[in-house]
Amino acid sequence: MKTIRTAIKIAQPQEVVFDLTQDYSRRLEWDPYLSEAYLLKDAPEPAVGVDSYCKNHNGSVMVSRYISFNRPAVAAVQMVKGPKILKRFSGAWNVHKIDANHSEVIFTYHFDLRWGVLGEMLTPFARWHFKRDMDKRLQALKQYLEA
Predict the structure, then answer these.
(1) Considering 67, 114, 131, 137, which has the largest number of Cβ atoms within 10 A of its Cβ?
(2) Which domain of life is it from (predicted)?
(3) What are the DSSP calls for 38-87, one per residue?
(4) pLDDT digits (tens, 9 = 90+) for 125-141
(5) If pLDDT is split at 50, 70 and 90, which confidence band does 92 have?
């Protein structure tokens, strides 16, 4: 699988940063990528085995399942259902404590595209597109939390 990783430092405690990234009731307050985001099956909060629904502003939908959840450090999901172009996808939020009032967020995607040779040809564009959106999301998170 192809891997993309981006990181940012935020002037907020680890717990505050982690909790906001995983709070679906507040996700649309700061995340410019998504137009809808919620947990499925009336799950009260994220946990291993819980599914989430995310729709971006282009109308692309992904249902993902939490495969790791270790507050306040790591949350990882794996695609259960998603856009036709994606063969496999997983993502992770890692929040590291720098000191009592500062954190580093590392946002990672792993993906493979469908369609064999065509998918391989589209991979550089997909990398660029995902990285651009990941950077925008982290900048928005930082701006929201430091405002």
Answers:
(1) 137
(2) Bacteria
(3) EESTT-SS--TT-EEEEEETTS-EEEEEEEEEETTTEEEEEEEE--TTEE
(4) 999 999 999 999 999 99
(5) very high
84-102: average pLDDT: 97
What is the spatial distance between Cα 133 and Cα 108, in angstroms, rounded to a whole number? 12
44 Cβ neighbours under 8 A, 6+ residues apart:
none
Provide mean pLDDT across the span 69-77.
Answer: 98
Domains of the chain, by residue range, sit at 2-146
Residues 144 and 121: beta-carbon distance below 8 Å: no
The architecture (CATH level 2) of 2-146 comes to 2-Layer Sandwich (3.30)
Picking from 92, 64, 110, 66, the residue whose alpha carbon sits closest to that of residue 7 is: 92
Helices 116-146 and 14-21 sit at what angle, rounded to 10 degrees?
A: 130
3-state secondary structure of 29: helix
Task: Tell me which residue of 44, 4, 47 sits closest to 133, measured CA to CA.
Answer: 4
